[in-house]
Design goal:
Elements: E1 14-18, H1 26-35, E2 40-44, H2 50-60, E3 65-69, H3 74-83, E4 87-89, H4 95-104, E5 108-109, E6 111-112, H5 115-123, E7 128-131, H6 139-147, E8 154-155, H7 166-171, E9 178-180, H8 186-191, H9 194-209
Parallel strand pairs: 1-2, 1-9, 2-3, 3-4, 4-5, 6-7, 7-8
The structure holds 3-phosphoglyceric acid.
Residues 17, 132, 158-161, 180-182 line the site of 3-phosphoglyceric acid.
Length: 210
């Protein structure tokens, strides 16, 4: 359907999936990723500081397109949107979640890992879906298999994506984006090693261009 709100525009084809333990890490992380060419970030609602972190990035790093990840409930959708998330992502989807997202008017990437889940998300109007957990679901073989019946669906494989396999994923015609947590290692966040994060982002940016 054309009535669903579009994702904000961003250049990067690699979406860092981040779990933050401290909201104060959010702005320097966003700046470090931008310095490495990545202008999109998924901040997961897995920690108590996630909403504050989303709000800080939305407020202070406007050129970073900040999405809220791990949206599991209607409440998560509302809280993420109130915090300033420009879009949402989920590991899966449910009727209640899709209703909440539609009511909120939040651009959204539902998670799928079976043909039936692709069909349900497609019926709800979605054409970009997160394949999760991507390598467990079969990785490239699964994406190739899904391409035949679902020629109008694009995927963001996430879960098991790394520097070693992202190039192969991004060459697959029905892959629009890839997601992964390796771009923001917990140890680098703890140590405030923003240069390491910029270096990881730059590596990913270069590989995704090639
Ligand atoms: C997650 O659930 O944390 C994301 O899918 C990232 O998975 P990864 O750690 O395998 O990149």
């Amino acid at each position: 359907s054309t009535s669903l709100p579009a994702l904000p525009a961003f250049r990067s084809r690699v979406v860092p999936v981040v779990v933050l333990q401290d909201a104060a890490h959010a702005v320097p992380l966003a700046q470090a990723l931008l310095a490495g060419g990545i202008d999109v970030i998924e901040i997961t609602l897995r920690t108590p500081c996630a909403l504050e972190a989303i709000a800080a990035v939305a407020r202070e790093v406007p050129e970073m397109q900040v999405g809220a990840g791990t949206l599991l409930s209607a409440d998560d959708v509302r809280r993420a949107q109130d915090a300033g998330a420009r879009f949402g992502l989920s590991p899966g989807h449910s009727p209640a979640l899709l209703r909440a997202v539609a009511e909120a008017g939040l651009p959204f990437v539902p998670g799928v890992m079976t043909p039936g889940e692709v069909m349900a998300a497609r019926e709800a109007g979605y054409r970009l879906m997160k394949l999760f957990p991507a390598t467990v679901a079969g990785g490239l073989d699964m994406l190739k298999a899904l391409a035949s019946p679902f020629g109008d669906v694009r995927f963001c494989p996430t879960g098991g994506v790394s520097l070693d396999n992202l190039g192969g994923f991004l060459k697959q015609p029905n892959v629009a984006l890839v997601g992964g947590s390796w771009l923001a290692p917990a140890a680098a966040l703890r140590a405030g090693d923003w240069n390491q994060i910029t270096a990881l982002a730059r590596q990913a940016t270069e590989l995704s261009a090639g």
